Amino acid sequence: MFIDRAWVQKNNNIPHFSNVIKNVDKNEGVEITMNCNSDAFKWIIDFVKLKTDGDETKEELLKKNKFTNNAVLEENDDQTDSNLYEKMDEITNENCLNIMVTAYFLQLQWVYRKVWEYYF
User: What's the rounded Cα separation, in Å, for the pair 34 and 48?
Assistant: First the structure.
């Protein structure tokens, strides 16, 4: 699976990968081999992208207008939360453990906690 290097490094989106690639020259490619459930990995990447895309949209709104109406920012937060909960609705008895183990491995404690609190 291709994951954009700039996205990984921005805001330390995937801490495990950020730590691996921080000392690799920008002109070098990075290939990371993982032994984890590929479906859980894809779910986590999609989940993190939903969250970070929502954060970026909020930043863009703030940059456009320093005095953006709070209702607009709250609407953006609400939409991001709605998208995250829709994604969490995909968690099942069959995939929950794989998602949690993979989130832990990727050092995504916030994802781990979110899944734990939502599912249990």
Answer: 18
Determine if the pTM surpasses 0.90: no
**Tens-of-pLDDT digits for all 120 residues of the chain?**
778 888 888 778 888 888 778 888 878 777 777 778 999 999 999 999 898 876 666 666 666 665 556 666 677 678 888 999 999 999 999 999 999 999 999 999 999 999 999 998
User: Exposed, middle or buried by CB within 10 Å (0-12, 13-18, 19+), for 17?
Assistant: buried
